[in-house]
Amino acid sequence: MPAGAEPSATRLIADKSQIVFVSKQMGVPVEGTFKKFDAQVAFDPKKPEGGTVALQIDTASAGFGVPMSDAELPKAPWFDAAHFPQASFQSSAIKALGDGKFEMAGKLTIKGIARSVTVPVGIAAAPGGGNYAVATGSFTIQRLDFKVGDGEWTDTSVVGNEVQVRFKLTLAGFGPL
Q1: Is 119's pLDDT higher than 50?
Q2: Of 72, 6, 64, 2, which is closest to residue 35 (Cα–Cα)?
Q3: For 80, left (φ over 0), alpha (ψ -120 to 50), or beta?
Q4: How many CA atoms lie within 13 A of 49 on its CB side?
Q5: Rounded to an integer, what is the distance from CA 165 to the centroid of its chain?
Q6: 111-122 in b/e burial notation, b at 16+ Cβ within 10 A?
Q7: Which of 88, 91, 114, 134 sits at 20 to 30 Å (Cα–Cα) from 168?
Q8: Which residues pair with 116 in a beta bridge?
Q9: Are 121 and 137 in contact (CB under 8 A)?
């Protein structure tokens, strides 16, 4: 690559990626997914401090695979998809921890409420080779910090406040690790 040239564009391979959220309902872990999301990644694993990651999630695509619950999630007490069609993450700093591990600090915005989060991320070559990488990680948020499950749903004995978010993002055009 010529000096000063931009790295090749990195694209999210959506059908090989997933974003999962796990909450406790009546003390039992329940797993849901977001079916639609996109990411813009400008990141060189050899110089991560200059990189950026932006993720947009279609809040109406949230679901547990149970029609009754899935119909409720886009409504105002939960994601209020009519007023807040997207949740997002925008990195502000990326730090290398060594051995393919990174720490991404940034703002997570849900229902118009932005909070600082630090997300541990592991990046590895995708199985089967090629110019693909897989970024994985998980972090925990408090749903009530973002008014997810508002009104009568603020009682955490029914739906717990803690929500684990797990992701696997397959990226094309990532470059050497």
Answers
A1: yes
A2: 64
A3: left
A4: 1
A5: 7
A6: beeeeebebebe
A7: 114
A8: 107
A9: yes
- Beta-carbon contacts of residue 158 (< 8 Å; ≥ 6 apart): 25, 26
| CA–CA dist 79, 60 (Å, integer) | 8
In the numeric block, the tokens 């999301």 are attached to 37
> When comparing pLDDT for 2 and 143, which is higher?
143
Reference 86, options 107, 49, 55, 63; nearest CA is 55
Can you say whether the dihedral through the CA atoms of 61, 62, 67, 69 is positive or negative?
A: negative
Lowest mean pLDDT among 43-52, 66-75, 143-152: 43-52
Give tens-digit pLDDT for 126-141. 887 678 899 999 999 9
Nearest partner of 60 among 69, 70, 51, judged by Cα: 70
Asked if 20 and 29 count as a contact pair (C-beta separation under 8 A), the reply is no
